[in-house]
Specification:
Length: about 260
């Protein structure tokens, strides 16, 4: 009874910890993108796409090679995910002997083992689907990024909208890649759950602790804060150029708001 109680308390607690952390991370990405690695990378990718599309005759090969590297990495992860899914499916259907002799501190019933293997299988299948979507967007972007939009139209507004669309496509590919990796991360505590709820809960705690330092952009966020403070100090010292500086800063803030508001 005590072992079943551990499964009923530690497993939901570990999963709730993982879900709560990712909800908090999503809030940070939406509200404070410059303080997260995902948000910073999304903004930088937009600048990279614009730089590549400024001169497609010179940068076209570099852009396609970069996207091809991302497609190859996504293909490797997708192949791994579907291979692991097949392996888990074989383990579920084979009925590998007497599991009561396994080193497990928790519920050893066949129902619980079936639930564990099923959740791992679903986790890898979700990872496969997400990474396939990443390949899809990267493939589209590899064609769109070489469109000679400056020769097609002379309208600057159309140029900006075209570059934003391509950048949005590249970012979506990266988002699906990140979600696929998160599905792989979720498989670690689910796999350790086979050996009991205690290893599963400890894995969730250590995984959240590790992901926090991988997801938060400490240096970039602090540099933005220092830059903002420096701008405020310059406004106080330069009274004669106050109107001109205020107009420039309004333009800068509009540009930053546009970048942060459309990078998703």
């Amino acid at each position: 009874m005590l072992k079943q109680l551990l499964d009923y308390t530690l497993v939901p607690s570990g999963l709730l910890l993982m879900v709560a952390y990712h909800l908090w991370l999503l809030h940070r990405i939406v509200k404070h993108p410059t303080k997260t690695v995902i948000g910073v990378n999304a903004i930088i990718r937009r600048f990279w796409v614009r730089a590549m599309m400024e001169d497609t005759s010179k940068n076209g090969v570099l852009a396609v090679q970069t996207l091809r590297n991302n497609i190859m990495a996504s293909t490797l992860l997708a192949s791994t995910a579907i291979m692991l899914s097949s392996l888990i499916a074989v383990l579920m259907t084979s009925g590998s002997g007497d599991r009561s002799m396994w080193l497990v501190f928790g519920d050893r019933s066949e129902l619980f083992f079936s639930i564990k293997f099923f959740l791992i299988l679903v986790c890898f299948l979700v990872a496969f689907l997400l990474i396939v979507q990443s390949i899809r967007y990267y493939s589209h972007a590899s064609i769109l990024i070489n469109v000679p939009f400056k020769k097609i139209s002379r309208n600057v507004y159309h140029h900006q909208r075209t570059a934003e669309y391509v950048a949005r496509t590249v970012n979506r590919g990266s988002y699906f890649w990140s979600l696929g990796l998160r599905a792989f991360y979720f498989s670690f505590p689910l796999f350790l759950w086979i050996f009991g709820p205690i290893p599963m809960f400890l894995c969730c705690f250590l995984l959240v602790f590790m992901l926090y330092f991988l997801d938060i952009a400490f240096e970039f966020g602090s540099s933005v804060g220092v830059s903002d403070n420096d701008d405020d100090h310059d406004h106080a010292d330069n009274d004669d150029d106050h109107d001109h500086d205020h107009a420039d800063n309004d333009d800068d803030h509009d540009l930053v708001d546009e970048e942060l508001g459309t990078y998703l």
